[in-house]
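BUG: 3D viewer hangs when loading the predicted structure for this chain

Environment: internal workstation, default settings.
Expected: structure renders.
Actual: progress bar stalls at 90%.

Input used:
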Amino acid sequence: EVQLVESGGGLVQPGGSLRLSCAASGFTIGSWDMRWLRQTPGKGPEWVSIISRDNGGIYYAPFVKGRFTISSDNAKNTLYLQMNSLKPEDTAVYYCATTDDIGYAHRGQGTQVTVSP
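Structure tokens produced before the viewer hung:
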């Protein structure tokens, strides 16, 4: 069974940093694309970053480029998102997500990030 469990969210002041983790089980990170998404109340999910399974390419949404860094530790089967220079508009529930070989999308339960003075 595929499971994704996020952790590391919390309350941080503007300009601060957080590192989110996503522990994966039931598959090997690197077998599928791995993504971070975020969502605020009343809005749909917003794509943040991706590690491509095909070439290991890393891509970021324009609004986080230069501030966030996605990475993975294959030995721990864990995906990370290092978030620096956080802004109030980064406040959201952050999810890690993937799509398996038959096109089924999997997402964790999310972790709340709140950026506020």
